[in-house]
């Protein structure tokens, strides 16, 4: 078709839609006119809403508020855009929302907002039993005879003209078939109000309105409420992975809505919906409070992706949830508090190299491991990461997830190296990442009254250091619903570790919750991944020792693991390209190629450019669907997921020589954990490439 032709087809279609809308609105107006006892203004609002019943939505009018004797709910509107709890106002004076208050003329009307919020909570509770997240329930106050489009906290304030376009613009959250089941359920929970003053006239009342002819035939008998979540999940499975969820498991919704009396933790194996719960909770808390919510992770790319998800899911509150990597947040925090700091990773690194030459290379440390890397990690993750400042503390410290048993002379040598590093670093006037967190912690503790958050959520908490967790705790203390830590010790991809008890955080009892159903990985994929870490028991941050091969419940869906063994690197790369091409370009936006090192990433970037396969670096991926294969490291893939994952050359890389067997084993184990994380990013298919020719005997590749 020529360009003009397609434009005219679009114009024709737009005219058809407009005609249809006009007809539907006229019918809705006729229907609203038959409402007895409603004022003219209320009828006009009703007409706007009845319009939606002609498009497959359901409107419940004048319902009893359960648990009260005589209170009523004006309207509940259920449609693809969610559940709307509606209060219609026909006020003499214009409403005004300012400084967190609703006024009309000289009068404060905050009580009306409070009442609407209270009944919204009842509706949330009602749909939670169907697995529907509270983020899909929205309170609306609609003003007859007024033009308004405003917001007061969670409540949207709309005039009679604004309400229909606003609802029309809502993104689809509930599959068409689910609308009826939810409405039926709400109809039972909120019974018809006996003393109703607004009644639809006889005959074709709003609930009798014909369904949208475009919607799939809704046969009540065929549709059971229990299957609602499943239907939604199936629809999501077909869409891009970025699609967000409205339906969770009722147990997950219970965690989202739970009232915790202090800090809480949600843990569980890979793919069990921890992030989903954390994001829905962030939105839920933002709906419940007027304060800000801080949502942090260790990785710098993940906050962007999570921000995009939350914006799609719950745009109304998105501005009050701040997604940050912990280090970038801490730097800004120091700026705001005018605390001088000078983060310079390279110069700090250089200071360490200098210290190693002076105090490490000739010390007993090099007989255990001659490469400085292990000792740098010791200072980073064990000493500074845990805020150790005195040798006596370090001398007897239990070094979590460090296998080598360092005796006193080694610890003394590490301490001497640490002190030298600190001396050189200070001399150069630079800070490392740990210093930034320590400075921020000191400031947060010194002036706790100025900490600005109603709640803090840390995702992938196992990757944070003890000082990082203490810092987050200092921001909210033990306030109810203040701190939520989300993560899984089995996915700790950095050396070292800590216990929550070291941070003075107590999550015993119902404040420590575990999710157990994997919703992401096909069975074949999870089995392959668990085989990698089967022998690696690990200590979780609450101190529990857990076997590597964990019991996980699976939600069944088909999947495939392909192992491709090549003789040479060139053959291997050809096999990778062939696998990507065989699945076809339409699969590429949902595919990721994950690598062990930066060098490999560079290699595959060049290879894909030559092959004409579009790429998007995980560093730049922000959670919006992109027409490209994602490329990044195992660590950068943390917290993300893809339908298809390709792991080229995935077997353990040759590790640097090391005399100490335990250090060598620790490195191997860390690599296995990273590989496990990379493998569990795959939802439907996993491609595992390997090369049999020993390195150095094949033509050099990278
Ligand atoms: N109740 C549910 N029904 C269906 N799918 C779900 C449900 N809960 C979560 N999911 C899906 O499961 C996948 C994994 O969820 P999520 O990323 O939150 O898991 P996670 O525990 O944070 O994983 P990881 O620790 O591996 O990063 C996502 O695709 C999510 O949409």
From TrEMBL:
Keyword terms, alphabetized: ATP-binding, Coiled coil, Helicase, Hydrolase, Isomerase, Nucleotide-binding
Region spans: Disordered: 197-216
Any single GO BP term: recombinational repair
One Pfam family here: UvrD_C
Source species, domain of life: Bacteria
Protein name, entry field: DNA 3'-5' helicase
UvrD-like helicase ATP-binding domain boundaries: 247-565
Entry annotated with the keyword Calcium: no
Catalytic reaction list: Couples ATP hydrolysis with the unwinding of duplex DNA by translocating in the 3'-5' direction; ATP + H2O = ADP + phosphate + H(+)
One MF term in the entry's GO annotations: hydrolase activity
Low complexity composition-biased segments: 205-216
Keyword Transferase set for record: no
Amino-acid positions noted as binding ATP in the UniProt annotation, renumbered to this chain: 268-275
Residue span(s) of domain NERD: 37-150
Organism for this UniProt entry: Streptomyces cinnamoneus (Streptoverticillium cinnamoneum)
Family: Belongs to the helicase family. UvrD subfamily.
Entry EC no(s): 5.6.2.4
Xref: InterPro entries: DExx_box_DNA_helicase_dom_sf, DNA_helicase_UvrD-like_C, DNA_helicase_UvrD/REP, NERD, P-loop_NTPase, UvrD-like_ATP-bd
Coiled-coil parts of chain: 11-38
Lineage, top ranks: Bacteria, Bacillati, Actinomycetota, Actinomycetes, Kitasatosporales
